[in-house]
Design brief:
heterodimer; A: alpha/beta; nine-stranded mixed sheet; two-stranded parallel sheet; 13 strands; B: mainly alpha; MetI-like fold; 2 domains; 6% strand; phosphate transmembrane transporter activity (chain B); membrane (chain B); transmembrane helix (chain B); Phosphate transport system permease protein PstA (chain B)
Chain lengths: 338, 388
């Protein structure tokens, strides 16, 4: 008993006396759950083929990642943040306030956002306006904004199925959600009468839109159980689960790799990661990770990441971006406002 | 007021009927709970069982200058897409480690791609018809087989399902629980000893007692927030480390240990204390030589149950960064690590079928360890428990 207590106390004291300031070999990455599969693929490759330890990647959502990334410079802050949308001006400013002033932006490819349902339902064609009407908190009725009265798809348009509106989608910390709001909601509502010519992005909270966490698999599972529902998630999950779910055509375009890459499919977005250059010397793995990630082997036309759902950028753009990341071009506020 | 014998007999019938009804209802409740458990475990076994097997291919591997540069060249063209990329990419390192391999061609069993694995298990796979033909031929020759999945127990997380295993997570769990035990056990037992043996019974100790009981019911995610604020932000301990995870889970386990230790101490009869005092023992001697040894089985049981609870916990660990992609096994308590339930959670979010298997298999491993721990708790209690 006594010996037991003594060792216990000894271990506790030892644990407490370990100081935080330890040189770190391991790269730390946070951010988007959409970029996570690509990022961890590259990380594992780095760990398996070099002497660097495998980087640690937390899937926190784009917003959550930026929050951690911008907390400051130093050992306990991440070196890289993944994002499924561009860094926001507010995030850039927050970073700058906390001393994170030297950031490089790396664009890695495209991802489409699928608006999908169970395969049992067959194909459906929706317009962005119809989708916006289904999930907006307020919609114009006779020129005035009222709380969304639509219960069924057929309430929006007679040609749509007589099914209750249920949409499983990402929560507000998610980059997928940001992209959905921007590419579907804003675009659809901008020119719509009643919204005053401005994009409207508030999503209804009366139970018809169900925020389902950062777990896209869970949404797919929900769709197989509730065949009347729709789900919003990244294209890679649609491709992987083609036997369970089918993506709706949006404005007449089916969600397919070519259509996403060419920009024809309207709901596609770029994926990014952001590098904290101030950690360059402290964490040498950062450089190696950058080089590997931006290589043709990973993000190219025949790259590994294409195999797991990333849609490659055009060749010229890849070249330019590789240069940009290699030279660690500093991101400026003006870039983000473009 | 008097009842005739008939009245009582009539009543008796009704009372017996109620007894029978109660018995039936409680048996029904038990049967319902048992069937839920059976369905759950049965489902996990059905889904998880295939993960303990992994397809391997027997192919000639050529170790040459070329295959050191481009590992894909080490195997023949028709099987290139069938062999795991994870196996191929470690070739250059293997050749560096063993230079005698150079220039040889050796027939060896290599890990296959997860799609081959799914095909051999009779599940849906993305294999092209041509690949299927090659594979069918290999199955006939006996050069493609399902073997025991060693990788599942020796590797960490991976983006290649055939290389995904629970080793790193298991190491993380062990280190984390060691920290939890080293922190929560002494502190918990000491607190309980003070409250039970020394503390006066006043408003203050009553308030403390209420608070401890309250803490035991606080949602675990709050301990994660507390851990983030205190251990990471204030003390600057490394994020994602078993040190922080263990201390956070320790905070969570503390009330459980205090409460069970107190009841174990209380079950030691006062006569023992009085007898010890009677022969001139100091309070220190009474506690050390008599009360603690006698209550030890109860204390250990409580601690094991507390630990088992901590072991299955994920929510607070999300906040302190232990739910992440961490393939390397931790070597110390300050390195980044993940734990078993977190690994299961991560796999549950992967789209491939092979991960669905591994998720279930991970659950089976976790359940076995939990059953073992809880059985140990019961055994300890049965073996050492004394009744007065």
């Amino acid at each position: 008993m006594q010996a037991f207590l003594k060792t216990g106390i000894a271990v506790a004291v030892m644990a407490a006396s370990i100081s935080a300031a330890q040189a770190r070999e391991q790269l730390r990455i946070v951010g988007s759950s959409t970029v996570y599969p690509f990022s961890s693929y590259v990380a594992e490759e780095l760990g398996a083929t070099s002497d660097f330890p495998t980087p640690v990647i937390e899937s926190t959502g784009s917003g959550g990642g930026m929050k951690l990334f911008c907390e400051g410079v130093g050992d306990n802050t991440p070196d890289i943040s993944n994002a499924s949308r561009r860094m926001k001006v507010s995030e850039f400013e927050r970073c700058a306030d906390n001393g994170v002033t030297d950031i490089t932006e790396a664009k890695i490819g495209f991802d489409g956002i699928a608006f999908a349902q169970s395969v049992d339902n067959g194909d459906i064609n929706l317009t962005r306006e119809q989708i916006a009407m289904a999930v907006a908190a307020q919609v114009p009725v006779d020129g005035k904004l009222v709380d969304n009265p639509y219960m069924k798809w057929s309430d929006i348009d007679k040609s749509l199925p007589d099914r209750k509106i249920t949409v499983y989608g990402p929560p507000s910390t998610s980059g997928t959600r940001d992209a959905f709001e921007e590419l579907v909601m804003e675009v659809a509502t901008e020119d719509m009468e009643g919204y005053g010519g401005e994009g409207y992005t508030n999503i209804r909270q009366d139970g018809h839109y169900i925020a389902s966490g950062e777990n896209d698999n869970l949404i797919i599972q929900k769709l197989t159980e509730n065949t009347a529902a729709f789900g919003i998630f990244g294209y890679s999950f649609l491709e992987e689960n083609a036997d369970k779910v089918v993506g709706a055509s949006i404005d007449g375009v089916e969600p397919e790799a070519d259509a996403i890459s060419s920009g024809e499919y309207p709901v596609s977005r770029s994926l990014f990661y952001y590098v904290k250059n101030q950690h360059k010397d402290d964490v040498p793995a950062q450089e190696a990770y950058n080089t590997l990630f931006m290589s043709e082997k990973m993000i190219g036309e025949l790259g590994y990441l294409k195999g797991i759902g990333l849609i490659p950028l055009p060749k010229a753009e890849r070249e330019a971006l590789r240069q940009q990341v290699e030279s660690r071009t500093q991101l400026t506020l003006a870039d983000l406002k473009k | 007021m008097s009842h005739s014998f008939d009245d009582i007999s009539a009543q008796l019938k009704g009372r017996h009927r109620r007894t029978r009804r109660l018995k039936m209802m409680s048996m029904g409740a038990l049967a319902l709970a048992a069937s839920f458990l059976l369905v759950f475990i049965g489902d996990m076994v059905m889904r998880g069982y295939p993960a303990f097997q992994q397809a391997e291919l027997n192919v000639p591997v050529t170790y040459s200058e070329q295959s050191r540069e481009i590992p894909l060249a080490a195997v023949e063209e028709d099987v290139r897409s069938l062999v795991s990329r994870g196996w191929l990419r470690q070739l250059p390192r293997a050749m560096k480690a063993d230079p005698t391999l150079m220039g040889q061609t050796i027939d060896s069993w290599v890990i296959s791609d997860d799609q081959v694995d799914q095909y051999l298990k009779g599940h849906k796979s993305h294999l092209k018809p041509k690949e299927q033909q090659v594979l069918d031929r290999m199955i006939e020759n006996g050069t493609a087989e399902l073997k025991f999945n060693v990788n599942f127990f020796t590797t960490g997380d991976s983006k290649l399902p055939e290389y995904a295993g629970i080793w790193s997570a298991a190491m993380g769990t062990i280190l984390t629980l060691l920290v939890t035990l080293a922190f929560a056990f002494p502190v918990g037992v000491m607190t309980a000893v003070y409250l039970e043996e020394f503390a006066p019974d006043n408003r203050l100790t009553q308030a403390i007692e209420i608070n401890i009981n309250n803490l035991a019911a606080v949602p675990s995610i709050l301990f994660g927030l507390l851990g983030l604020a205190i251990f990471i932000n204030f003390f600057g301990m490394p994020r994602s480390s078993p040190l922080v995870g263990g201390l956070t889970l320790g905070l969570m386990t503390l009330p459980v240990i205090i409460i069970t230790t107190r009841s174990a101490l209380r079950s030691v009869p006062d006569t023992i204390r009085q007898a010890a005092f009677g022969v001139g023992c100091s309070q220190w001697q009474v506690v050390r030589d008599h009360v603690l040894p006698l209550s030890l089985p109860g204390i250990l049981t409580g601690s094991i149950i507390g630990l088992a609870q901590a072991m299955g916990e994920t929510a607070p660990l999300i906040i302190i960064g232990m739910v992440a992609f961490i393939p390397d096994a931790p070597e110390s308590i300050t390195q980044a690590a993940t734990v078993l339930p977190a690994q299961i959670f991560t796999w549950a979010g992967e789209p491939e079928q092979a991960y669905v298997e591994r998720t279930a298999a991970g659950i089976l491993v976790l359940l076995s360890v939990l059953i073992f721990l809880n059985a140990a708790a019961v055994m300890l209690r049965k073996k050492f428990e004394r009744r007065w």
